[in-house]
């Protein structure tokens, strides 16, 4: 009996030593922040669009890629799988993004090879409590997946260059493939990394690295590994862009999307941020967001500069890359705030490096205070101010007031499936996320706001208040009016509901 207890204790000790408990605890913290009350806020405009695309996958039998959408198929397949397993609901829509955001944490730990374990621990903790990575890690949009693959690609590039190992090769290939499968803006990050490497080589001639390796390490990958990894990448690209081989026209999508995005991104298309202009082609929008929300990142940004003189090759490269990407995104007129997470990520590592390098205890205490402040900001935005138009991170966000009408109608349909045949007419130019929220209702029509008329006996109409008089004059008195606000930038909306349906919804 004593022997068995002693063996059990030894096994437990081995498990504790084997597992990286710092990594596990940070992942648990990140999961709690991203999963808690995940359906608290209404679906965002883009979430509604993404959900609608997934509904089309089910209707068409596959994913039909369109370069007009700018985004690759990866995220849509993940949502499709999630909804097949969990049903059509907000949790299923957002779970894949949560997974992507949390998976980024162990990838950050991989950089311990060049920054040290303590530094990446602080970096991962800062990532876990960051307002941006949490806020957009709770949205069903592409950015969290894109960020995961960007970091994996960058790590793989450095590992392949510096350490010449097989893990670096696979990280490079899978990271690049994942970026292409997610967003057309992968070209910015690939181009920035290439330019950063060129700048680094020139810089090293003027400020040599003292401890640079004279003899490169032995290569641990073979030609066979290149063939296998590249074949895997090509297969994945063809499989997803061709709609699992059922929509071959989609194979031209990645090239068409870049051309289309260049024309849209170069003019801003309504997403310009002129308030932050300082030069004709550069503004400080991203810096303004960092100063407002991401205080650990600000420390990392400032600390990274010293590595241009004292850093190793990976540290110098990431410093140049960080400022290069910041400059690129500052020049591009098209700016949506969720792109911030793909801009700031290198400075998580430098924040960790700054804390590890600190010799005085008060600096570590200050770092803890900054992380607590970041967590407080995180909680305030994600659980209280998530639809406030005064928050720059809150952008094109649907207001929860839509639930005034939506929830009673959905509850009624869940109790009696015949209500999914309810007839309705929507006279709005910007309708998302309604087509996804009401996607199970088969008799709804979306007609825009130009040709408004009373149709053959719909049981409800949705229209902007400025146009409501057109219907009000024609409808009989057996309709009830309910007002709600869809989101900022749109007038208040009016719903005309038949009294019989209204009474049934109120039961």
Distance between the termini: 64 Å
Alpha carbon gyration radius:
26 Å
Neighbour order of strands in the largest sheet: 2-1-3-5-4
* Overall pLDDT score: 90
Strand content: under 5%
* Structure classification: mainly alpha
User: Any low-confidence stretches, pLDDT <50, length ≥5?
Assistant: none
Shape: globular
The main sheet comes to: 5 strands, mixed
The total count of strands amounts to 5
List the total number of helices. Answer: 24
Order of helices and strands: HHHHHHHHHHHHHHHHHHHHHEHEEHEEH
Counted up, domains total 2
Structure, briefly:
The chain is mainly alpha-helical.
How does this model look, in words?
With 507 residues, the chain is mainly α. The chain has 2 domains: 2-38 and 53-383, no CATH class; 400-505. The chain has helices at residues 2-18, 21-35, 45-60, 74-86, 90-110, 112-115, 117-129, 131-135, 143-162, 166-180, 186-206, 223-241, 253-265, 285-293, 295-304, 307-310, 313-331, 340-344, 346-357, 361-383, 403-415, 434-437, 468-474, 499-505, and strands at residues 424-427, 444-446, 460-464, 479-484, 493-498. Strands 2-1-3-5-4 form a 5-stranded mixed beta sheet. Helix 22 (434-437) links the parallel strand 1 (424-427) and strand 2. The N and C termini lie far apart (64 Å). 40% of the residues are buried.
């Amino acid at each position: 009996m004593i022997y068995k207890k002693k063996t059990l204790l030894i096994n437990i000790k081995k498990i504790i030593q084997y597992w990286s408990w710092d990594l596990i605890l940070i992942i648990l913290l990140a999961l709690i922040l991203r999963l808690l009350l995940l359906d608290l806020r209404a679906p965002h405009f883009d979430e509604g669009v993404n959900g609608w695309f997934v509904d089309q996958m089910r209707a068409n039998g596959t994913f039909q890629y369109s370069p007009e959408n700018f985004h690759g198929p990866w995220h849509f397949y993940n949502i499709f799988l999630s909804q097949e397993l969990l049903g059509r609901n907000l949790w299923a829509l957002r779970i894949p993004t949560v997974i992507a955001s949390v998976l980024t944490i162990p990838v950050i730990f991989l950089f311990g090879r060049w920054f040290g374990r303590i530094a990446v621990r602080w970096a991962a903790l800062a990532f876990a409590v960051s307002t941006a990575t949490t806020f957009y890690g709770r949205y069903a949009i592409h950015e969290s997946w894109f960020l995961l693959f960007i970091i994996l690609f960058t790590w793989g590039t450095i590992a392949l260059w510096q350490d010449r190992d097989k893990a670096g090769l696979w990280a490079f290939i899978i990271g690049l493939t994942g970026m292409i499968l997610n967003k057309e803006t992968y070209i910015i990050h690939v181009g920035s990394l290439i330019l950063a490497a060129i700048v680094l080589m020139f810089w090293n001639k003027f400020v040599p690295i003292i401890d640079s390796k004279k003899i490169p390490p032995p290569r641990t990958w073979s030609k066979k590994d290149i063939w296998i990894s590249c074949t895997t990448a090509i297969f994945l690209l063809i499989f997803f862009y061709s709609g699992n081989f059922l929509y071959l026209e989609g194979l031209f999508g990645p090239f068409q999307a870049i051309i289309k995005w260049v024309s849209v991104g170069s003019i801003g298309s309504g997403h310009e941020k002129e308030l932050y202009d300082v030069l004709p082609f550069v503004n400080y929008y991203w810096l303004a967001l960092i100063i407002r929300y991401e205080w650990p990142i600000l420390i990392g940004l400032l600390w990274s500069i010293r590595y241009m003189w004292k850093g190793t090759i990976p540290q110098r490269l990431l410093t140049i890359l960080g400022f290069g990407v910041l400059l690129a995104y500052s020049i591009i007129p098209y700016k949506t705030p969720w792109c911030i997470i793909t801009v700031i990520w290198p400075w998580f590592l430098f924040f960790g490096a700054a804390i590890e390098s600190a010799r005085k205890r008060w600096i570590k205490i200050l770092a803890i205070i900054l992380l607590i402040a970041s967590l407080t900001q995180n909680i305030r935005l994600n659980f209280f101010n998530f639809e406030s138009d005064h928050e720059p991170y809150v952008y094109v966000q649907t207001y929860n007031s839509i639930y005034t009408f939506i929830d009673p109608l959905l509850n009624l349909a869940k109790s009696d499936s015949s209500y999914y045949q309810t007839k309705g007419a929507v006279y709005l130019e910007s309708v998302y996320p309604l087509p996804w929220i009401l996607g199970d209702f088969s008799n709804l029509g979306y007609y825009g706001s130009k040709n408004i008329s009373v149709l053959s006996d719909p049981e409800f109409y949705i229209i902007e208040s400025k146009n409501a008089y057109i219907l009000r004059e024609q409808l009989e008195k057996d309709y009830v009016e309910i007002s709600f606000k869809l989101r900022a930038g749109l007038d208040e909306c009016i719903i005309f509901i038949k009294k019989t349906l209204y009474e049934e919804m109120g039961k």
